[in-house]
Amino acid sequence: MVLLLVFILAAPLIRFLIRCCGAGLNLASNVRRIGLMNDSARVNLRLEQQHDFRCMLHFEEGAPTLIVDEPPPLGEAVGPSTVELLLGAVANCLTNSLLFALRKYKQDTKPLSCKASAEIGRNAENRLRVLHIDIELQLGKSAAKRQHLPRILGQFESFCTVTQSVAQGIPVQLRVTDSEALVLKRNLYAPTDRFG
């Protein structure tokens, strides 16, 4: 039940990310379309329970309906779980932020890739929680073949709405590597950090 609440709170951001993916990661046009370039915006969705823990998410403006479900024994895993959606939202938002920064400096963006994992465990009250998120972004080229990389890496994640929001409650470890597995950046966002 707590995981469902986490998902519902993150759902507006997930909707935005799904739209970005569906439009070929055209972040700028999607941001304008749903009004997030303004100081504030409201994103809405509707959730309908189908059977047990399987639900249908209905988004505004014609985005495809999404089936979500929990893994057994609660559900049947016929769709992504709430934790997978949260993890996907963080991973996609960071990828989009890096993509946006690379494009801003007219850098080749292909192919970017991202690996993400979440540690789930019990808290002091013996409740299941997402305890930690690990994200690894990989550039498709060697760092030596990129211009403006220090500036891009120094600022891109501060524009990631989802990560900066989630990390206020869940530690997020970020690592950026190039195509030769050279680590270009490491950062840990912990709930005690201040975000602007």
Automatic annotation (TrEMBL):
A Pfam family matched in the record: OsmC
Gene3D superfamilies found in the cross-reference section: 3.30.300.20
UniProt superkingdom: Bacteria
Protein name (record): Redox protein
